[in-house]
Design brief:
Elements lengths: L9 H33 L4 E6 L5 H5 L6 E7 L2 H14 L5 E5 L12 E6 L7 H7 E11 L2 E6 L21 E2 L7 E8 L13 E7 L2 E7 L12 E7 L5 E6 L21 E4 L2 E5 L6 E5 L5 E4 L6 E7 L2 E7 L3 H16 L6 H15 L3 E8 L5 E9 L9 E3 L2 E6 L2 E6 L5 E6 L3 E5 L2 E5 L3 E6 L5 E6 L4 E8 L2 E7 L13 E6 L6 E5 L14 E3 L2 E4 L5 E4 L5 E2 L13 E3 L2 E4 L15 E6 L74 E3 L2 E7 L4 E7 L4
Parallel strand pairs: 1-2, 1-4, 2-3, 4-5, 7-33
Antiparallel strand pairs: 5-6, 8-39, 9-10, 10-11, 11-12, 13-14, 14-15, 15-16, 17-18, 18-19, 19-20, 21-22, 22-23, 23-24, 25-26, 26-27, 27-28, 29-30, 30-31, 31-32, 33-34, 34-35, 35-36, 37-38, 38-39, 40-41, 41-42
Amino acid sequence: MKTKCLFFTKPVFLLCLSCIVSVVTAQPMVSEQQAGRILDATNIKGGLIVHIGCGDGKLTAALHAGDSYLVHGLDTDAQAVRTAREHISKLGIYGPVSVDIFDGKRLPYADNLVNLVVAEDIDDVSKTELLRVLAPGGTLYTKKDGRWSGIVKPRPKNIDEWTHYLHDASGNPVAHDEVVGPPRHVQWVAEPRHTRSHEHIPSFYALVSTNGRIFYIADEAPVASIRQTPQWYLEARDAFNGIQLWKKPVGTWFPHIVNWGQTPRQLQRKLVAVGSRVYVTLGLHAPLTAVDAATGETLKVYENTLGTEEIILHKGTLLLVVHSVTDERVTELAKWVQLVKKKSPLDKRETAEPLVKRLRATEAKGEKTILALDADTGRLLWKKDGANASGLRTLSLCADGDRVFYQNRRDVVCLDLETGRKLWTESSVPMRMVSNGSVFCADGTTVTALSSQTGRTQWAQAASLTEIRDVFVAGGSLWVGGFKPFPTKRGPSWGPYFATQRNLTTGEILMHVEPENPSHHHRCYSNKATDRYILGGRRGTEFIDLKSGDVLWHSWARGTCKYGVMPSNGLLYTPPHPCACYVGVKLSGFHALAPERKTGIMLSESGEGRFERGPAYDKIITHQSSIDNNSDWPTYRFDAQRSGSTPNRVPAVLRSKWQVKVGRKLTAPTVAEGKVFASNGTVVFKSLSLYDLYAN
């Protein structure tokens, strides 16, 4: 038998080696290209992606196109799941990308959670189930007969957006949302768990929502000390699953070493989001900037808008309150910035407070101008000069139809939206908002309705309150809410809350609601409403039914300082706060809360299908759990009695045996059979890690 030896010249050898490398790298490149085509076709810019039938996990991993993407793969084949996990782990992205087994029929997600479902074979998963988990505007992208096609879940007509601080340009803080109701489910939870201080400036501002996203301005500095230098950001999250899409630095904001009650109200009005754009001032004195809502990319900085304090958008026209940025304002703010950089003087409150006092006095000076700009081009349409800073009533600027309204001292002024021409002026008590052809004004004595066309008084009725907190047009009626004081020396905010339903045309009282007083002062933010409920903020969030007058208390759903809560997208958003009131029951963190649902992944009362039986299930002698080894710590509080104690002896002198890095957001560890169990992971999915108790 003859043996043939093959010898290659160098070029041939290199060619063969190149072919081998190409074969090895071809599959990942194919997966990345396929993922790119899928993301381009569906126009997904971040959020939660579910890959059904993930197989080896290569396409699943490739769908993770950046930090704003959270990807979850599902498969019915346990071996495929193991293979996919190994592949993703080798890439170092397990956590943001994870894989799990499922029964092939039910998807393990809450309603309206997923932005994109990718699947090649979904014969056993019903279309109803697929659409259930998709968020409004989400896409189902499937392959059949070799061709990919997509279905977009439409946004329901009975949910609403919240584009401005006071809902929209009218100043009427009422969501036309029929789905928002008393919370029964947690849609998502996000960080931070707490904001920085109860006594100082809030760490959270101006939450708004549009096009399936939410936006806000937040201070991300450590909560350990209010003396730490602030770190302000404009942040975007998906409205239905809470995944952070992007964040953008914000420059110098209002001084954080200041009593919370001295915070300027107009800081809540420096952010508006409508459609594909976010309009914001990226600093206290910064000009108006347009930002891409999907990516955070700066699209436009508007000329001559330095010092913009309030923003509303109506019919494609930006209406701004611009406060002249004088040299004195710039100088005092620069002094504050230098003080913050030095840090040590901040430890002495007597050093910071005089500077803040001077800054506040300076901020109250100067002229204010109302500008009207074309939102697309930035072209100046008209402006109104000469409004004294102390005379122009904060938050009074609003718009409805073809008219613009604001209040300068006691005068309510109406302008033509297109030209800025003054149409009428009428002296009145504080202006609240415009709706249904009327401008509503109110103080503690009277409620007045002016015609938005002529300015003439349509009606005026006694308010019978010492402090009016709320004026809403909701469900076809005017609602006025406020306080009467207790017969004590405490101020009116400590008194019982009243709400009256009034006829829009005459002001006649139709219903009087007086909720039970919970013996707690009202929170430091204004109430909001939907067309079904007033969302009171006395102890937590009180849902006052507009039809029956019934009140449903939710002491655990607390709003954030100076802003409150946001009803939008069929959900109730409760941003993080620093308060300790009702600490035993209140929620901590940023929550989106859903009302009672008829669908979801709820299973039968018997629990059938709730638990998956592993291969060792039938080998267990007894399925009754017991704690025989007292050296274990099997649950958070040790045992079912939550005793929090162990009979084991612990040495008085402790020394380190081992340590291991496990990432952020670590849960409380448990111990069983010589192993330590701990969990860490992302907002939606958790990954479980096991560590040997004695060696790691």
